[in-house]
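Could you show me some protein's one-letter sequence and the numbers that encode its backbone in two labelled lines?

___
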Amino acid sequence: MPTIDLEYLNGFSGFAVPDIDAARTFYGEVLGLEVSDGGMGLLRMVLPGGAEVIVYPKPDHAPAGFTVLNLVVADIEQAVDVLAERGVEFLRYDGFEQDQRGIATGGGPRIAWFTDPAGNILSVLQD
């Protein structure tokens, strides 16, 4: 079989939500990310660093059991406090040492998990 070189021009990720308007509000206003109309009923998000994510409607959406989006922050305590003030509730997982804010403190980056209105799991983390 001949070897064919691939030239990737761009890359992006995507995930589903049942309610695009709720996603627009959450990602744009609560998380403060750059969100715009992606055409055809999609949302387009630009993450810090320039990566793009599309959010698409799926009426029978079932959230994944894993983290779909990680946001790296400079100060995790500040990030958690600001998001909590905006109504975000942080998740607790068995097997992880987590402080009173929900920040996991042992064995890797400091991380705190939460969900979007569709139940998709997200995190803020500090390296």
Notes: The radius of gyration is 16 Å. Residues 12-126 form a domain with the 2,3-Dihydroxybiphenyl 1,2-Dioxygenase; domain 1 fold (CATH 3.10.180.10). DSSP finds two helices and seven strands in the chain.
